[in-house]
Design brief:
The chain is an alpha/beta fold. The protein has helices at residues 2-13, 19-30, 64-68, 80-86, 89-93, 108-119, 165-173, 201-204, 206-213, 218-221, 223-230, 235-239, 248-252, 259-274, and strands at residues 34-38, 52-56, 73-76, 99-102, 127-131, 178-182, 189-193. The chain has a single domain (2-274), classed as Vaccinia Virus protein VP39 (Rossmann fold, 3-Layer(aba) Sandwich). Strand 6 and strand 7 form a beta hairpin. It is globular, with a radius of gyration of 18 Å. It binds S-adenosylmethionine.
Length: 275
């Protein structure tokens, strides 16, 4: 196991731009009109945004500097579940979400809910980026309940929890999405495009999916299998595919979608915009 992980370190991760650099490029080239972030911590990724921004985190840390330079930032000192129970990103942002970064509680069921709730407020040209879905060893994936469990690791300061399961679940249940797992150190950035706010597959199957994955651990599932399913690709190359969000609806209706589905999506999109 350790040897295979070392192989991943050198062959997959070393050359990729960091998750921060990929997000920075999306902001710079995509010029999102609305940004939604779950899990703000001290504001490193929030600081990349200069558009209308909503940040959600139950703990408010050193955000004063970001806020001072960012008049369009609203911070909600709430868990993401509480935020979605009380508020909506469209109301807070004044429009649907162009770009979302989900980096809150690193447990699978939390991220699954964050994804389901966020997608409802996206549009077909949105990008939703998920952090930490490519753990580099099993130590990183331990849950709060296993916090004291010690495993061999080269990365004692990293914690991804079990959000790696999102990659497998999205690939299995949402083949309609364009999901790219980028070689962004330290623990990957998964970028999803082709979002469909009307899709309820994950919400309808939420309990069954969570129950199915509750007791699965990475040691049993296998790091190699995860990386095979993830089909990790170059963040450097992906970054070149970013185009401005104001052109995104047309791009989202592009070649990947079959013509009939493309038309249906266009009609649905027109309806959503009118709503
Ligand atoms: C890894 S940090 C985010 C780092 C930040 N996005 C960056 O890259 O600079 C995770 C954050 O998630 C927050 N968090 C924990 N549980 C949460 C929840 N249920 N809802 C929203 N945020 C949560 C933590 O307080 C912490 O600030």
């Amino acid at each position: 196991m350790a040897a295979r992980l070392a192989e991943h370190d050198t062959e997959i991760f070393i050359d990729g731009p960091s998750y921060h650099a990929v997000l920075s490029q999306i902001h710079r080239v995509g010029r999102p009109r609305s940004y939604f972030e779950i899990g703000a911590f001290t504001g490193d990724t929030l600081a990349l945004s200069s558009c209308k921004t909503v940040a959600v985190d139950p703990v408010k840390r050193v955000l004063t500097q970001v806020e001072r330079g960012h008049p369009d930032l609203t911070f909600h000192e709430l868990t993401s579940d509480d935020y979605f129970a009380r508020r909506t990103p469209t109301a807070d942002l004044g429009r649907r979400i162009d770009l979302a970064f989900l980096d809150g509680m690193h447990e699978f069921d939390f991220l699954l809910r964050d994804f389901i709730n966020t997608e409802r407020f996206c549009h077909p040209g949105s990008i939703v980026a998920l952090h930490d879905c490519l753990p580099r060893d099993a130590y990183m994936t331990r849950l709060w309940k296993d916090w004291e469990v010690q495993k061999p690791t080269n990365y004692p300061n990293h914690w991804t929890g079990d959000v790696w399961k999102m990659v497998v679940v999205l690939r299995r249940h949402r083949p309609d999405l364009d999901i790219r797992c980028l070689d962004a150190p330290p623990t990957g950035l998964t970028v999803c495009r082709g979002l469909d706010p009307a899709n309820t597959v994950l919400a309808d199957n939420y309990d069954r999916i969570v129950a199915e994955w509750r007791d699965v651990i990475l040691d049993d599932y296998g790091v190699d299998k995860l990386f095979a399913v993830a089909a990790v690709e170059s963040g450097e190359a992906w970054m070149r595919t970013v185009t401005p969000f104001h052109r995104a609806p047309l791009r989202a209706l592009g070649a990947r979608i079959q013509p009939r589905r493309r038309l249906l999506r266009l009609l649905r999109w027109a309806g959503l915009r009118a709503a």
